[in-house]
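Anyone have tokens for beta-ketoacyl-[acyl-carrier-protein] synthase III? Sequence:
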Amino acid sequence: MVAASGLAPPRLAVPCPRAAGRGCGGHHRVGFLRSAPVALAGPAAAQLRCCASTVDDGVVSAAAAPKPRLPRVVGMGSKLIGCGSATPSLSVSNDDLSKIVETSDEWIAARTGIRNRRVLSGNETLRELSVQAAKKALEMAQVNADDVDLVLLCTSTPDDLFGGAAQVLAEVGCANAFGFDITAACSGFIIGLITATRFIKGGGIRNILVIGADALSQFVDWTDRGTCILFGDAAGAVLVQACSADEDGLLGFCVQSDGNGQKHLNCVSSHVESILSKTNGVPSFPPKKATFSNIEMNGKEVFRFAVRCVPQSIEKALEEAGLPASSIDWLLLHQANQRIIDAAASRLDIPSDKVISNLANYGNTSAASIPLALDEAVRAGKVKAGDVIAASGFGAGLTWGSAIVKWC
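Reply: yep, here.
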């Protein structure tokens, strides 16, 4: 909070909250308590801009401005306490695709491990899937929507070009939350998860919804059998909550990117001529109307990238966590191709019974794939409290990242 003088008031040191039923390990841990908002007087108190959920012509009253429920304490740890997911109603099988393009169930399954995928149809929207997944995560976490402070919508295919997080949080009922989109394609959820933990540690945020959602079916060339067989639509969410530092569930992470690989996997913008004929003599005006082309992918190069970089990324995250690969209870990779998943597991010497995979039923759901698979595993009783999960996302950009997390 910045005072009228332009100087930020000092932060006060306070002990960190104790975990329920236990102390702080015999140490006096010190966090930082942000001071209360500075009271305004005079004309400034009557008109505050962009500071409340109820806006009238860009000006709101001071009484309408949201007030912090509790002081913000930085330096906290993070834990995952709830998850949820949602998928479209329409299921498209490999046999269905064989009626559209020259392919077969055997050909697709042998090369990818995919047999079915869910696709948005009718009046279904990605926003609706995101809302459903978020509500399920809140229900499992037993956290009220009003107690959510931040919503991160990890997507490359929002219903609105300007982003969808604000609409999602409004429909979920997160009246006190701020939200924004994160675009990193198939790496989006991992990057969103790590971002959430940094907001908790450095910003004193308490409850964060991280939603991974994508509808890549809208950007697929359904006559191209090299790409149309891969992608499906879905949404998945987790609730990340602040905890004491000694309970931190993010044990280690690694994120990387290489723009030189963009040529191997992309969905670039394209342009069409303007319908206007009169330009008043201004050359090259108006600009051409922008749209997006279909997904283009060099499958062989993407495969090589993934089987090389994903294990390395997990190893770096494990090194930061100070853990050996043998400590991993579950390997959870972005669900892109079963051969990639198997190759990474083999490199890390992780047995197949410790690998989470639902690729066969949903295909590549981009940013939704990791939280969708996690939600199914948790609800099936496979992932239990205290389990260590090595999760890794990778894809367009090129971007990739890994996180070693403990399920609460």
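The longest helix spans residues 299-321.
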